[in-house]
């Protein structure tokens, strides 16, 4: 994905406020062989880009003063209650150096699994993303987790998911973390009691009335 940026010569909080009033966003790009550099972005362009998941997980083409730099989105500061981007951090990417970032899981086929369709289970997603390391060319936009064969009361571990080629999961201990669970919610004691009371009332209504003349 590509976006435009220009060098920012004036810094400081008052300069940043003036930028924001003019529809611009102060930002910074750092890392690689170059020094940290202050830049500015068009607010509308970056606002709409940030609403797209790939912008958070892809190597981006930043056109800085017309020259391309490959960068990775690292941090975004939002206004407390307005739909306004206040500041953005980017990191330069070297094609020959491994990078570390977080990638979301995409869970698929859960509603078609035996756990849901046949056994009435509820699927819960325990982890929504994972830290990975890889070369920029191998960076996936997401990790797909297929739940199509999940049975009731089963769990899916990270060890059940194959990492894409060139990708390594980071920070995983000896015990593989749980990604998703399929749980059948048992009826509570109150539900059982209410069902029993309802059956008793139905049984009474089915009996013929006693003859008071006896």
Automatic annotation (TrEMBL):
Key words, A-Z: Ribonucleoprotein, Ribosomal protein, RNA-binding, rRNA-binding
Bias-annotated ranges (Basic and acidic residues): 201-214
UniProt-annotated stretches for the region Disordered: 189-214
Every Large ribosomal subunit protein bL25 L25 domain range: 4-90
Cellular component annotations (GO), alphabetically ordered: cytosolic large ribosomal subunit
GO BP annotations, alphabetical order: translation
Domain Large ribosomal subunit protein bL25 beta: 99-179
Superkingdom of this protein's organism: Bacteria
GO molecular function, one term: 5S rRNA binding
Subunit structure: Part of the 50S ribosomal subunit; part of the 5S rRNA/L5/L18/L25 subcomplex. Contacts the 5S rRNA. Binds to the 5S rRNA independently of L5 and L18.
Role, per record: This is one of the proteins that binds to the 5S RNA in the ribosome where it forms part of the central protuberance.
Family, as annotated: Belongs to the bacterial ribosomal protein bL25 family. CTC subfamily.
Protein name as annotated: Large ribosomal subunit protein bL25
Organism: Advenella mimigardefordensis (strain DSM 17166 / LMG 22922 / DPN7)
């Amino acid at each position: 994905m590509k976006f435009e940026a220009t060098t920012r010569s004036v810094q400081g909080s008052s300069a940043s406020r003036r930028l924001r009033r003019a529809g611009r966003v102060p930002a910074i790009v750092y890392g690689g062989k170059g020094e940290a550099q202050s830049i500015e972005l068009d607010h509308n362009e970056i606002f709409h880009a940030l609403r797209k998941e790939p912008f958070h997980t892809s190597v981006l083409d930043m056109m800085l003063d017309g020259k391309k730099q490959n960068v990775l989105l690292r941090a975004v500061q939002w206004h407390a209650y307005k739909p306004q981007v206040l500041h953005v951090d980017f990191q330069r990417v070297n094609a020959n150096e491994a990078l570390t970032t977080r990638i979301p899981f995409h869970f698929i086929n859960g509603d078609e699994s035996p756990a849901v369709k046949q056994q009435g289970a509820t699927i819960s997603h325990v982890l929504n993303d994972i830290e990975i390391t890889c070369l920029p060319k191998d960076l996936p936009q997401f990790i797909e987790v297929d739940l199509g064969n999940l049975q009731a009361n089963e769990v899916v571990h990270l060890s059940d998911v194959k990492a894409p080629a060139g990708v390594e999961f980071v920070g995983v201990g000896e015990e593989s973390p749980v990604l998703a669970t399929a749980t059948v919610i048992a009826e509570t004691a109150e539900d059982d009691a209410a069902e029993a009371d309802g059956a008793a009332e139905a049984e009474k209504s089915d009996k013929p009335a006693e003859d008071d003349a006896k």
